[in-house]
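User: structure tokens for Cytidine deaminase, please.
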Amino acid sequence: MTEKRKDVLSWDECFMQIAWVIAQRSKDPSTQAGAVIVDQNNIIIGLGYNGFPRGCNDDELPWEREGELADTKYAYVVHAEENAVYNANKNTGGCKIYTTLFPCNECAKTLIQSGIKEVIYASDKYHDQPPWEASRKMLDLAKIKYRQYRPKFKLKFEANE
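Assistant: Done. Predicted tokens:
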């Protein structure tokens, strides 16, 4: 008798891998971030990556990281978490978001207002910077759970024969 596979991806592994894949759509030369929103049934309802707003030609806006605000990407880029909320195909209340980077304070406000209940993130490389300190403070006050994704194993992408 053939038994079912036991080494299947967990939901965390699956959705974080999808977040990494959608991040590759970003044209940002320094940071590629991705986010996946899933409902209570583990159905994907929204995807997002960091980039300029729809209709804004990315050849006419700056990708610079330093200088006056209007001369840098920071004045224009929509973060992955925000785009995932904007792209959601149903209400995000009670949902989880998987994101490649811990959300900044602006994204935290969007997640709180949209009813996200849990944040699963891969990297927290900006942990000690004020926008991320503010983010954690707001998420705590709103009683939104957050936890760091810990990969269980290295994924294989080769086809099964």
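User: Anything notable?

Assistant: The CA atoms of residues 81 and 159 lie 31 Å apart.
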